[in-house]
Amino acid sequence: MATDASSEPLAPRLSGTGRPVPELDSVCVEPGGELVSLLTQAREQLGGVAALRLGPHPTVLVTEPGAVQHVLALHPDRYVKRSHRARLLIGDGVLAATGEAWKHQRRLLQSQFTGTGMRRYEQRITEAARTTAERWAGYARTGRTFDVGEEMRRFALDTIWRSLTGHPLDAATAHELTAVEAVVAALPTLPADASDARDAVAADLARIDAVARHAVTVARAGAVGPDGPGLLQVLVDASAERPEYTDRLLRDELVTLLVAGHETTATTLTWLYLLLDRHPAAREEALAAGGEARRSGGRPYRH
Protein backbone atom coordinates (compact mmCIF):
# COMPACT_ATOMS: atom_id res chain seq x y z
CA MET A 1 0.00 0.00 0.00
CA ALA A 2 1.13 3.60 -0.51
CA THR A 3 1.65 5.58 2.67
CA ASP A 4 -0.80 8.48 2.93
CA ALA A 5 0.99 11.54 4.30
CA SER A 6 -2.27 13.22 5.31
CA SER A 7 -2.97 10.53 7.89
CA GLU A 8 0.58 9.57 8.80
CA PRO A 9 3.06 12.36 9.67
CA LEU A 10 5.99 9.96 9.65
CA ALA A 11 5.36 8.79 6.10
CA PRO A 12 8.54 8.77 3.98
CA ARG A 13 8.50 10.54 0.64
CA LEU A 14 10.59 10.21 -2.48
CA SER A 15 13.13 13.02 -2.46
CA GLY A 16 12.40 15.75 -5.00
CA THR A 17 9.00 14.33 -6.03
CA GLY A 18 6.76 14.66 -2.99
CA ARG A 19 5.36 11.22 -3.79
CA PRO A 20 4.85 8.82 -0.90
CA VAL A 21 7.04 5.73 -0.80
CA PRO A 22 4.97 2.54 -1.13
CA GLU A 23 4.86 0.81 2.24
CA LEU A 24 4.64 -2.89 3.01
CA ASP A 25 1.43 -3.83 4.78
CA SER A 26 1.97 -4.20 8.52
CA VAL A 27 0.45 -7.71 8.51
CA CYS A 28 3.53 -8.88 6.59
CA VAL A 29 5.84 -7.85 9.42
CA GLU A 30 5.83 -10.77 11.83
CA PRO A 31 7.48 -10.31 15.24
CA GLY A 32 10.60 -12.45 15.36
CA GLY A 33 10.42 -13.16 11.62
CA GLU A 34 13.42 -13.45 9.32
CA LEU A 35 14.64 -9.98 8.36
CA VAL A 36 16.14 -11.11 5.05
CA SER A 37 12.81 -12.65 4.02
CA LEU A 38 10.97 -9.48 4.99
CA LEU A 39 13.32 -7.25 2.99
CA THR A 40 13.06 -9.61 0.00
CA GLN A 41 9.27 -9.48 0.22
CA ALA A 42 9.29 -5.69 0.30
CA ARG A 43 11.57 -5.58 -2.73
CA GLU A 44 9.52 -8.09 -4.73
CA GLN A 45 6.13 -6.55 -3.90
CA LEU A 46 6.94 -2.85 -4.00
CA GLY A 47 10.04 -2.42 -6.13
CA GLY A 48 13.44 -0.83 -5.64
CA VAL A 49 12.32 1.88 -3.20
CA ALA A 50 10.03 0.51 -0.51
CA ALA A 51 9.09 1.34 3.07
CA LEU A 52 8.38 -0.98 5.99
CA ARG A 53 8.00 -0.54 9.71
CA LEU A 54 10.23 -2.41 12.13
CA GLY A 55 9.14 -0.11 14.96
CA PRO A 56 7.38 3.23 15.30
CA HIS A 57 9.36 4.82 12.47
CA PRO A 58 9.36 3.80 8.80
CA THR A 59 12.46 2.22 7.28
CA VAL A 60 13.07 2.82 3.58
CA LEU A 61 14.73 -0.03 1.68
CA VAL A 62 16.65 1.18 -1.40
CA THR A 63 17.82 -1.53 -3.82
CA GLU A 64 17.23 -0.11 -7.30
CA PRO A 65 20.70 0.79 -8.71
CA GLY A 66 19.72 4.29 -9.83
CA ALA A 67 18.17 5.05 -6.46
CA VAL A 68 21.22 3.70 -4.62
CA GLN A 69 23.43 6.00 -6.70
CA HIS A 70 21.05 8.89 -5.95
CA VAL A 71 21.43 8.32 -2.18
CA LEU A 72 25.09 7.40 -1.89
CA ALA A 73 26.79 9.26 -4.73
CA LEU A 74 24.67 12.10 -6.10
CA HIS A 75 23.09 13.53 -2.95
CA PRO A 76 25.03 12.40 0.13
CA ASP A 77 24.29 15.78 1.72
CA ARG A 78 20.57 14.95 1.84
CA TYR A 79 21.00 11.52 3.38
CA VAL A 80 23.05 12.08 6.50
CA LYS A 81 24.26 9.27 8.74
CA ARG A 82 23.21 9.70 12.32
CA SER A 83 25.06 8.47 15.38
CA HIS A 84 24.69 4.73 15.70
CA ARG A 85 25.61 2.24 18.36
CA ALA A 86 28.24 0.79 16.06
CA ARG A 87 30.18 4.03 16.50
CA LEU A 88 31.13 2.64 19.90
CA LEU A 89 33.20 0.05 18.05
CA ILE A 90 34.21 1.69 14.77
CA GLY A 91 34.50 5.29 15.99
CA ASP A 92 34.92 7.70 13.08
CA GLY A 93 35.78 5.03 10.52
CA VAL A 94 34.48 5.44 6.98
CA LEU A 95 31.18 3.64 7.72
CA ALA A 96 30.30 6.12 10.47
CA ALA A 97 31.86 9.26 8.99
CA THR A 98 29.71 11.94 7.37
CA GLY A 99 30.08 14.98 5.13
CA GLU A 100 33.51 16.08 3.99
CA ALA A 101 35.27 13.69 6.35
CA TRP A 102 33.48 10.77 4.72
CA LYS A 103 34.37 12.01 1.23
CA HIS A 104 38.07 12.26 2.05
CA GLN A 105 38.21 8.88 3.79
CA ARG A 106 36.25 7.17 1.04
CA ARG A 107 38.45 8.69 -1.67
CA LEU A 108 41.61 7.43 -0.02
CA LEU A 109 40.26 3.90 0.41
CA GLN A 110 38.52 3.71 -2.96
CA SER A 111 41.74 3.34 -4.94
CA GLN A 112 42.50 0.14 -3.03
CA PHE A 113 39.26 -1.53 -4.12
CA THR A 114 39.42 -1.11 -7.88
CA GLY A 115 40.15 -4.08 -10.12
CA THR A 116 43.82 -3.15 -10.22
CA GLY A 117 43.91 -2.43 -6.51
CA MET A 118 42.38 -5.76 -5.56
CA ARG A 119 45.02 -7.65 -7.55
CA ARG A 120 47.54 -6.50 -4.94
CA TYR A 121 45.76 -8.75 -2.45
CA GLU A 122 45.33 -11.88 -4.57
CA GLN A 123 48.47 -13.53 -3.21
CA ARG A 124 47.42 -12.80 0.37
CA ILE A 125 44.04 -14.43 -0.18
CA THR A 126 45.81 -17.42 -1.74
CA GLU A 127 48.17 -17.75 1.22
CA ALA A 128 45.29 -17.55 3.70
CA ALA A 129 43.45 -20.25 1.73
CA ARG A 130 46.57 -22.42 1.66
CA THR A 131 46.95 -22.08 5.43
CA THR A 132 43.31 -23.12 5.88
CA ALA A 133 43.73 -26.08 3.51
CA GLU A 134 46.75 -27.26 5.50
CA ARG A 135 44.77 -27.08 8.72
CA TRP A 136 41.94 -29.07 7.14
CA ALA A 137 44.34 -31.67 5.79
CA GLY A 138 45.65 -32.10 9.34
CA TYR A 139 42.12 -32.66 10.60
CA ALA A 140 41.54 -35.23 7.86
CA ARG A 141 44.73 -37.17 8.65
CA THR A 142 43.78 -37.49 12.32
CA GLY A 143 40.09 -38.11 11.70
CA ARG A 144 39.04 -35.08 13.74
CA THR A 145 35.87 -33.14 13.04
CA PHE A 146 35.68 -29.37 13.18
CA ASP A 147 33.27 -26.46 12.87
CA VAL A 148 33.28 -25.16 9.28
CA GLY A 149 31.77 -21.84 10.41
CA GLU A 150 34.58 -21.34 12.91
CA GLU A 151 37.18 -22.20 10.28
CA MET A 152 35.67 -19.78 7.80
CA ARG A 153 35.69 -17.00 10.38
CA ARG A 154 39.39 -17.61 10.94
CA PHE A 155 40.07 -17.73 7.20
CA ALA A 156 38.20 -14.46 6.60
CA LEU A 157 40.01 -12.79 9.48
CA ASP A 158 43.38 -14.09 8.26
CA THR A 159 42.68 -12.76 4.76
CA ILE A 160 41.71 -9.33 6.03
CA TRP A 161 44.59 -9.16 8.47
CA ARG A 162 47.10 -10.02 5.73
CA SER A 163 45.53 -7.39 3.46
CA LEU A 164 45.64 -4.75 6.18
CA THR A 165 49.04 -5.43 7.69
CA GLY A 166 51.00 -7.67 5.30
CA HIS A 167 51.42 -10.21 8.10
CA PRO A 168 49.67 -13.58 8.52
CA LEU A 169 47.27 -13.85 11.43
CA ASP A 170 49.00 -15.39 14.45
CA ALA A 171 47.19 -17.27 17.22
CA ALA A 172 47.58 -14.51 19.82
CA THR A 173 46.13 -11.82 17.53
CA ALA A 174 43.30 -14.13 16.47
CA HIS A 175 42.45 -14.70 20.13
CA GLU A 176 42.43 -10.98 20.95
CA LEU A 177 40.29 -10.16 17.93
CA THR A 178 37.50 -12.40 19.18
CA ALA A 179 36.69 -9.26 21.15
CA VAL A 180 35.41 -7.71 17.90
CA GLU A 181 32.78 -10.43 17.55
CA ALA A 182 31.89 -10.05 21.23
CA VAL A 183 31.23 -6.32 20.86
CA VAL A 184 29.28 -6.76 17.61
CA ALA A 185 27.08 -9.39 19.28
CA ALA A 186 26.52 -7.12 22.29
CA LEU A 187 25.60 -3.96 20.35
CA PRO A 188 21.82 -4.60 20.07
CA THR A 189 21.47 -5.11 23.84
CA LEU A 190 23.73 -2.34 25.15
CA PRO A 191 22.28 0.51 27.27
CA ALA A 192 21.05 3.54 25.34
CA ASP A 193 23.37 5.84 27.28
CA ALA A 194 26.69 6.00 25.41
CA SER A 195 28.77 6.08 28.59
CA ASP A 196 26.98 3.08 30.09
CA ALA A 197 27.26 1.21 26.80
CA ARG A 198 31.00 1.79 26.64
CA ASP A 199 31.42 0.65 30.24
CA ALA A 200 29.57 -2.58 29.46
CA VAL A 201 32.12 -3.62 26.81
CA ALA A 202 35.15 -1.73 28.12
CA ALA A 203 37.31 -4.83 28.51
CA ASP A 204 36.69 -6.01 24.94
CA LEU A 205 37.27 -2.52 23.54
CA ALA A 206 40.58 -2.36 25.41
CA ARG A 207 41.68 -5.64 23.77
CA ILE A 208 40.74 -4.33 20.33
CA ASP A 209 42.52 -1.02 20.93
CA ALA A 210 45.68 -2.82 22.01
CA VAL A 211 45.78 -4.91 18.82
CA ALA A 212 45.12 -1.86 16.63
CA ARG A 213 47.68 0.24 18.47
CA HIS A 214 50.36 -2.43 17.95
CA ALA A 215 49.50 -2.77 14.25
CA VAL A 216 49.74 1.00 13.73
CA THR A 217 53.07 1.14 15.59
CA VAL A 218 54.49 -1.64 13.41
CA ALA A 219 53.28 0.10 10.24
CA ARG A 220 54.74 3.44 11.34
CA ALA A 221 58.07 1.71 11.93
CA GLY A 222 58.00 0.48 8.33
CA ALA A 223 58.15 -3.18 9.35
CA VAL A 224 56.91 -4.72 6.10
CA GLY A 225 55.42 -8.18 6.42
CA PRO A 226 56.19 -11.20 4.20
CA ASP A 227 53.29 -10.20 1.94
CA GLY A 228 54.57 -6.63 1.54
CA PRO A 229 52.97 -3.45 2.91
CA GLY A 230 49.26 -3.61 3.64
CA LEU A 231 46.34 -1.21 3.38
CA LEU A 232 47.16 0.10 6.85
CA GLN A 233 50.47 1.36 5.43
CA VAL A 234 48.52 3.45 2.89
CA LEU A 235 46.64 5.08 5.76
CA VAL A 236 49.79 5.61 7.81
CA ASP A 237 51.53 7.21 4.81
CA ALA A 238 48.53 9.49 4.33
CA SER A 239 48.83 10.67 7.92
CA ALA A 240 52.12 12.36 7.04
CA GLU A 241 50.21 14.86 4.88
CA ARG A 242 46.75 14.70 6.40
CA PRO A 243 46.67 15.68 10.07
CA GLU A 244 43.16 14.31 10.46
CA TYR A 245 44.64 10.80 10.24
CA THR A 246 45.55 10.60 13.88
CA ASP A 247 46.37 7.30 15.56
CA ARG A 248 42.75 7.22 16.72
CA LEU A 249 41.38 7.53 13.18
CA LEU A 250 43.85 4.92 11.96
CA ARG A 251 42.53 2.63 14.69
CA ASP A 252 38.93 3.38 13.65
CA GLU A 253 39.58 2.64 9.98
CA LEU A 254 41.41 -0.57 10.84
CA VAL A 255 38.56 -1.83 13.03
CA THR A 256 35.95 -0.71 10.49
CA LEU A 257 37.59 -2.80 7.76
CA LEU A 258 37.86 -5.78 10.10
CA VAL A 259 34.18 -5.55 11.02
CA ALA A 260 32.91 -4.84 7.50
CA GLY A 261 34.55 -7.80 5.81
CA HIS A 262 34.91 -10.45 8.47
CA GLU A 263 31.62 -11.94 9.64
CA THR A 264 29.67 -11.44 6.39
CA THR A 265 32.37 -13.14 4.31
CA ALA A 266 32.69 -16.01 6.78
CA THR A 267 28.92 -16.58 6.86
CA THR A 268 28.69 -16.59 3.06
CA LEU A 269 31.53 -19.12 2.77
CA THR A 270 29.98 -21.34 5.44
CA TRP A 271 26.72 -21.51 3.49
CA LEU A 272 28.71 -22.17 0.34
CA TYR A 273 30.24 -25.29 1.89
CA LEU A 274 26.82 -26.48 3.02
CA LEU A 275 25.43 -26.05 -0.49
CA LEU A 276 28.42 -27.77 -2.08
CA ASP A 277 27.91 -30.69 0.30
CA ARG A 278 24.28 -30.98 -0.79
CA HIS A 279 25.04 -30.66 -4.51
CA PRO A 280 27.78 -33.16 -5.43
CA ALA A 281 27.91 -32.19 -9.09
CA ALA A 282 28.60 -28.56 -8.23
CA ARG A 283 31.18 -29.67 -5.67
CA GLU A 284 33.03 -31.77 -8.22
CA GLU A 285 32.98 -28.89 -10.67
CA ALA A 286 34.45 -26.57 -8.04
CA LEU A 287 37.15 -29.10 -7.14
CA ALA A 288 38.04 -29.58 -10.79
CA ALA A 289 38.45 -25.82 -11.19
CA GLY A 290 40.71 -25.64 -8.15
CA GLY A 291 43.37 -28.28 -8.54
CA GLU A 292 45.08 -27.23 -5.34
CA ALA A 293 41.99 -28.10 -3.30
CA ARG A 294 41.98 -31.62 -4.72
CA ARG A 295 45.71 -32.08 -4.05
CA SER A 296 45.19 -31.08 -0.42
CA GLY A 297 42.69 -33.83 0.15
CA GLY A 298 39.52 -32.95 -1.70
CA ARG A 299 36.81 -32.71 0.91
CA PRO A 300 38.57 -32.74 4.30
CA TYR A 301 35.63 -31.77 6.46
CA ARG A 302 32.91 -33.54 8.35
CA HIS A 303 29.70 -32.38 9.90
Mean pLDDT: 84
> Alpha-carbon distance between the termini?
45 Å
Count of helix runs:
15
Widest sheet: strand ordering: 1-2
Share of helix among residues?
Answer: 55-70%
Number of strands: 2
Q: Which stretches are poorly predicted, pLDDT < 50 over at least 5 residues?
A: 1-11, 293-303
Radius of gyration: 22 Å
Q: Give the helix/strand class.
A: mainly alpha
What overall form do the CA principal axes indicate?
globular
Protein described:
The chain is mainly alpha-helical and 303 residues long. The chain is built from 15 helices and two strands.
Quick rundown:
With 303 residues, this protein is mainly alpha-helical. It has 15 helices and two strands.
Write the layout of secondary structure elements.
Elements: H1 35-46, E1 49-53, E2 58-62, H2 65-74, H3 87-90, H4 99-110, H5 115-119, H6 122-142, H7 148-165, H8 171-176, H9 178-186, H10 194-200, H11 202-220, H12 231-239, H13 247-278, H14 280-289, H15 291-295
Antiparallel strand pairs: 1-2
